[in-house]
């Protein structure tokens, strides 16, 4: 059995985990399924002896884990991010079953890193966090008791990705034939839209009418290409009133 | 989403678990996927505060758990049992991927209880334990690190069963059109064969030549029917030398 390389491109992102034991359990779950990239957003306690104990033989995953301050940072460099959530939220991608979504996620992994984002044990992911992800993924839990342990959730998702990779069931990508833009480029594009629309008077920051979330959803769904980002930003720049070039980009 | 009733017929059997925390994690994993029957074979420590803590909201599964002394007892009343093991063992059913095996297991659940048997955290299942099961099931773990935590393994298997049940992908049963015999009837049948073959001189207890394991494998594969058990036992009885009828059955 050859190890599927796409799994090396999967980042497991744990956002604000409270219990270090769950970080260890997640690391162990990842490694059993051939996943290695762990990113922790503001963990309550890490490194931790409890995490190491629960990781068992997967301490290498813990040792290589990156700790960052924000989900944006965790997603930098990814071409796709999926939020693990069962809730349907306005302005966010509707959750799909992991068994259906994993083929597309692995196809994106052919282009670059793909993140699966798990929320805090008690509060889950915020709407803002889910909106930073272009996809949402869930599993068909018991509606009367859907409370998977964080490590168990990572185990099931990692298992689905591995199973799909081994079965070679890669889904065709959406019509993004070129190179998909990394997360931070898309964020800059959206920020550029916002700035341009405010400047033009189309977007009133006091009454934003969900214009930005809608744009975000559109670009997320489409998996926008690098070249498309360049075109759109060039277009936006052409609409802007002349400003000091040094302050334009951010 | 209607809860699939077949899942109520699934028994999760943990054989000789060492860590009470894993029992709690297994209970939680089961409940999230709609499984409720937990059977513990000689647990090192149970009940336990640690198990209860790790079970989180699934303490009802722990409270209803049955504790027994042997795997035979745990399997009594089942029409099918699958061992969770990745090792290929002589005289035992070859392990199949859970994603492939779950359809058949759920079909058997239409007839009666179906057990999934998990071994000790360190030693796994013994050959003797696997031989008591008619099927073996595994998941495609990383060959370089396949050490799933016990609770995580239960989570993945329970997930596969639930996913399959919800998708309605029930596999056709083998040609067992009648009522499948429960575990203990098949065990009595095999014991009857053994006794008859010893009496006839075909089986030398000092040189058993794996005759019994082969019969066990055959009947396990076939999922023998109640009526077939009756026919075979009647046939065996007809071969036996006359003995005191009171001692014949056991």
Automatic annotation (TrEMBL), chains A, B:
Q: Which UniProt keywords apply?
A: Cytoplasm, Methyltransferase, S-adenosyl-L-methionine, Transferase, tRNA processing
User: Where found?
Assistant: Cytoplasm
Q: Which InterPro entries match?
A: Alpha/beta_knot_MTases (IPR029028), RNA_MeTrfase_TrmJ/LasT (IPR004384), SpoU_MeTrfase (IPR001537), tRNA_m1G_MTases_N (IPR029026)
Give the Gene Ontology MF terms in alphabetical order.
Answer: methyltransferase activity
A GO BP term here is: methylation
UniProt-listed CDD domains: SpoU-like_TrmJ
Q: What class of enzyme is it?
A: transferase
Q: Which reaction does it catalyse?
A: uridine(32) in tRNA + S-adenosyl-L-methionine = 2'-O-methyluridine(32) in tRNA + S-adenosyl-L-homocysteine + H(+); cytidine(32) in tRNA + S-adenosyl-L-methionine = 2'-O-methylcytidine(32) in tRNA + S-adenosyl-L-homocysteine + H(+)
Q: Does the keyword tRNA processing apply?
A: yes
Pfam families annotated for this entry? SpoU_methylase (PF00588)
Predominant subcellular localization, coarse grouping: cytoplasm
Report the PANTHER family cross-referenced here. TRNA (CYTIDINE_URIDINE-2'-O-)-METHYLTRANSFERASE TRMJ, TRNA/RRNA METHYLTRANSFERASE
Q: Which family does it belong to?
A: Belongs to the class IV-like SAM-binding methyltransferase superfamily. RNA methyltransferase TrmH family.
The protein's assembly and partners: Homodimer.
Protein name according to UniProt = tRNA (cytidine/uridine-2'-O-)-methyltransferase TrmJ
């Amino acid at each position: 059995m050859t190890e599927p390389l796409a799994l090396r491109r999967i980042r497991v992102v744990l956002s604000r985990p409270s219990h270090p034991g769950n970080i260890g359990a997640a690391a162990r779950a990842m490694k059993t399924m051939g996943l290695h990239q762990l990113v922790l957003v503001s963990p309550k306690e890490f490194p931790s002896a409890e995490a190491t104990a629960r990781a068992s033989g997967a301490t290498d995953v813990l040792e290589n884990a990156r700790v960052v301050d924000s989900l944006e940072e965790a997603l930098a460099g990814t071409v796709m991010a999926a939020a693990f959530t069962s809730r349907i939220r306005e302005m966010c991608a509707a959750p799909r079953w992991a068994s259906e979504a994993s083929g597309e996620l692995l196809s994106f992994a052919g282009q670059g890193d793909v993140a699966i984002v798990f929320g805090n044990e008690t509060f889950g992911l915020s709407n803002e966090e889910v909106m930073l992800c272009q996809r949402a993924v869930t599993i068909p839990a018991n509606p009367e008791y859907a409370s998977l342990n964080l490590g168990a959730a990572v185990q099931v998702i990692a298992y689905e990705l591995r199973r799909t990779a081994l079965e070679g069931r890669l889904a065709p990508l959406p019509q993004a034939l070129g190179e998909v833009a990394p997360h931070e480029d898309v964020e800059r594009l959206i920020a550029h839209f916002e700035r341009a629309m405010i400047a033009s008077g189309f977007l009133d920051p006091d009454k934003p009418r969900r214009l930005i979330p809608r744009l975000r959803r559109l670009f997320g769904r489409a998996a926008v290409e690098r070249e498309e980002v360049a075109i759109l930003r060039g277009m936006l720049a052409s609409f802007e009133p002349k400003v000091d070039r040094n302050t334009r980009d951010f």
